[in-house]
Each structure stands twice: as C-alpha cells, then as structure tokens.
C-alpha cells in the first residue's frame, strides 16, 4: 500500500525550532511594522531572523523589530498549511505538495498560476497569519499590540444596570437588542481582552502583500485573495462573555471579541473556492481584471484567471502530484470516490494490517492497560 501524502502535525504540538524547520518558504516584500523590541527580549531577534534565509531586506527589518510577531505569523502560516490539507484531503489536489520535499513555499508551482486552488491557498495563508497574530494580541503575548479598543455604549444605561444589580433588583423586561445595543434582558458591556483584528490585518498585509502596485494579473489575484482571507477572520469573530450577578444569575455579562475557530474559516474559504469567479483580463493589457475586483459583488469572492487542470498525473509545472497510489472509497459519489479520484484508471484492492487496542483492563488505581491486536482491512488504492 502506498503511503499517504505527508501531512503536517497539529500546530499546537510544534516548538519554534521545529516550526522554522517546517516553514522554509519565501514571502513577498513587506513594510516594517511595530515598535522596536527591547534588547533583552526573551526572543533573540537576530538569532531567530538569521534562521530565515528567505526573508527580504524589508522582511528582515520587520523580523528584527517585532520578532515575537514574526513567530506568531509563522505559526499562522503553518496553521494555514495544516488546514489546507484538511479541507482538500478528499480532492485530487490535496495541498500535500505545499509542505513536501523541503521546497520553498511561494516558489511552489501552483502558487505561480492563476487557478482557483492558487487563490484558495493565498487567502488561507493571509487568514492564518491574521488569526494567529490577533490571538497572540489578545493573550498578551506581543509587545507591539494588546487588547482592541471597543466602542462605548450608552453610559447612563450601563450605570442604571449596574445600580440595579448592586441593589439586588431584577431588571425590567425589554425586547432583545440588536448587536452592540444591549437591553436589560441581554445586558452586557465590552470587557476582557478583545482580539486586535485591525493590527493583525495590518501586519498580515505588510508581511504578505507586495510593496509595489501590481502590474500583472497574478499579483492582482494574490492581493485580492489576501484581502478576502484577512476579512473572513474578522467577519467570523465571535462574542464571548463572562457572567456576573448574585448567585451566578448571569444578569450581567462582560463580553469581548475572540478569533473564530480556524476550521470554520477554512470551510468558508473552501466554499468560496468552489464558487470562485473566473475573471477575464482587461483588453488594455494592464493586468487588470474586468469587472473591477473592488466592485461590491466581487469583494468577498475569490477570483481566478486560469482553468484548473485535472491533477490526475504528476506535473511539476502545475504543482500536481497526481493521484497514483491515493486511497479511495469504492462506492462514494464524492470527490474521494474511486471513480473520481482515480481518473478512470481503476483501482487495486490491497490488504492493510493495522494495530488496534484490545483486551483493555482497568488497574486500581488508576490506569487502563491494553494490548495491541493486529487488524486486517481491505483498502482501495488508485492505479
């Protein structure tokens, strides 16, 4: 049985050294951002930045000024690659070649093309950096950002609510309020530490976007995809609350904005990839698209300008690893079905032996001890 494509371990299990080893990639030029860190910073900025030979001069300056933010950005890129493999694991192109062979990420062939998959990866990378940096800001891990400032609500309303709670009185009934306009039945105020999405989006833009104005279709597609990815993270932010009141009654809540579950972000971007718009180039040979990408009906959509290949056969020029040896499901009508994944070549049935836990016993006190029993399964594999 051919081994499955290499996959990334969960981001939470990575040390910084391991992360830097996995994330050997190249990024476009960025602007310096953030205040200079103290010389006695926990992260030795020069040491860390020197381990990233793919940095441009401007990116190196950004890394030296804000090494802790750079570390969060690298975590975000790894998070994006891990999510890409999850979202497309059942498809012919499954993101596995983005993290295999030690190749430089943005030198990968598929990211030099105008496919819908290219737009998806660009948007996911920007979303990953935005998500990781915003989360680190809210956790107080970064010196250059902190809690986001929230707009002030009606101070008289909040004062009357707090006075009523302090006297032990119940609040008068009122209809439920809209977002940001609390009523006594949904009494809350901004508090805690909200994720600073504005700072995170700004850092992601400076880190990933080209500095110069794009003059070709690919750069315009990349910028647009980055913008879509950054905005999805902030649009999916969730309000989380902590209850206050006598006897845990939750008559009053302190709420803050938190970064969304990145699995949800990946699902949204995958859906936008599936419904991406094929845009034609402007006849003036300027690299611009028509209609304009900033138009309202395209602002949230992913766009691409090249039809995707079938990805059935290995082709390094297209970033395709092919589907030979990929496990498939014989009767599935989905993309992971053998009829679709194997591209009409058929499939083989192979016997696979796996070790499973069995004969488990509970020992006082307090652990469970199991044996490993071999289990034989038949697996369908593309020819």
UniProtKB/TrEMBL annotation:
Transmembrane segments: none
GO BP terms, alphabetized: bone trabecula formation; canonical Wnt signaling pathway; cell fate commitment; cellular response to cAMP; cellular response to parathyroid hormone stimulus; chondrocyte differentiation; epithelial cell differentiation; fat cell differentiation
MF terms (GO), sorted A to Z: cytokine activity; frizzled binding
Main location: secreted
Keyword vocabulary terms for this entry: Developmental protein, Disulfide bond, Extracellular matrix, Glycoprotein, Lipoprotein, Secreted, Wnt signaling pathway
InterPro entries xref list: Wnt (IPR005817), Wnt_C (IPR043158)
Gene Ontology CC entries for this record: extracellular space
UniProt-annotated location(s): Secreted, Extracellular space, Extracellular matrix
Family per similarity comment: Belongs to the Wnt family.
Function: Ligand for members of the frizzled family of seven transmembrane receptors.
Protein name: Protein Wnt
């Amino acid at each position: 049985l051919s081994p499955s494509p290499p996959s990334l371990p969960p981001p939470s299990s990575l040390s910084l050294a391991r992360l830097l080893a996995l994330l050997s990639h190249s990024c476009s030029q960025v602007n310096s951002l953030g205040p200079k860190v103290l010389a006695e910073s926990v992260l030795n900025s020069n040491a860390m930045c020197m381990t990233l030979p793919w940095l441009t001069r401007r990116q190196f300056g950004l890394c030296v000024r804000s090494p802790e933010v750079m570390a969060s950005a690298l975590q975000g890129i790894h998070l994006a690659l891990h999510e890409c493999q999850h979202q497309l694991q059942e498809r012919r192109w499954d993101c596995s070649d983005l993290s295999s062979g030690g190749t430089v990420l943005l030198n990968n062939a598929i990211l030099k093309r105008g496919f819908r998959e290219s737009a998806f990866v660009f948007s996911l990378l920007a979303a990953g950096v935005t998500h990781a940096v915003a989360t680190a800001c809210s956790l107080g891990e970064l010196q250059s950002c902190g809690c986001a400032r929230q707009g002030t609500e009606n101070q008289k309303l909040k004062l009357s609510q707090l006075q009523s709670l302090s006297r032990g009185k119940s609040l008068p009934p009122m209809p439920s309020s809209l977002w940001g306009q609390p009523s006594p039945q949904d009494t809350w105020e901004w508090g805690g530490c909200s994720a600073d999405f504005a700072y995170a989006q700004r850092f992601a833009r400076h880190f990933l976007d080209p500095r110069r104005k794009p003059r070709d279709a690919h750069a315009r597609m990349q910028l647009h995809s980055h913008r879509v990815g950054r905005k999805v993270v902030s649009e999916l932010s969730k309000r989380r609350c902590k209850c206050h009141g006598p006897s845990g009654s939750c008559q009053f809540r302190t709420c803050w904005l938190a970064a969304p579950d990145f699995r949800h972000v990946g699902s949204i971007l995958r859906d936008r990839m599936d419904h991406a718009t094929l845009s034609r180039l402007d006849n003036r040979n300027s690299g611009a698209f028509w209609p304009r990408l900033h138009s309202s009906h395209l602002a949230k959509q992913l766009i691409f300008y090249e039809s995707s290949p079938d990805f059935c056969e290995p082709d390094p020029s297209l970033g395709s690893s092919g589907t030979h040896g990929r496990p498939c499901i014989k009767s599935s009508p989905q993309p992971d079905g053998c009829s679709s994944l194997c591209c009409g070549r058929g499939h083989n049935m192979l016997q696979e032996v796996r070790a499973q836990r069995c004969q488990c016993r509970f020992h006082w006190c307090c652990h469970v001890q199991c044996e490993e029993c071999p289990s034989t399964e038949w697996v369908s594999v593309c020819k």
